[in-house]
Specification:
single chain; 101 residues; mainly alpha; elongated
Length: 101
């Protein structure tokens, strides 16, 4: 193989690898793990930190072992919004109490 062939081959392989390297990492997912065994909870939380694709793949591949579904584990946006709204309201109440004193 001559030098020109090697250069063309390495350029082509680099061009193929660039889109994969430039992909953004997925954002972590909020999960509900209350009541799960420690080893299952740790694994689900680790996969949730990797992103939704990894978590879904793990839950689906271990469904026959743990009898879990993605819908039961992942916290929905409506639930997270309600929690955030509730915490904002309690912060406002606390600020009003401080101002009154």
């Amino acid at each position: 193989m001559n030098n020109l062939s090697r250069i063309v081959l390495s350029a082509a392989l680099t061009a193929l690898a660039l889109p994969v390297a430039s992909q953004e990492a997925e954002r972590p997912v909020a999960v509900k793990t209350a009541g799960l065994p420690d080893h299952v909870r740790a694994r689900i939380e680790a996969k949730a930190q990797e992103g939704p694709s990894s978590l879904i793949r793990y839950i689906n591949s271990t469904r026959h072992l743990h009898n879990l579904r993605v819908e039961e584990i992942v916290v929905s946006e409506a639930e997270t919004g309600a929690v955030a709204k509730k915490s904002d309201e309690s912060t406002k109440v606390a600020e009003k109490d401080r101002a009154a004193k």
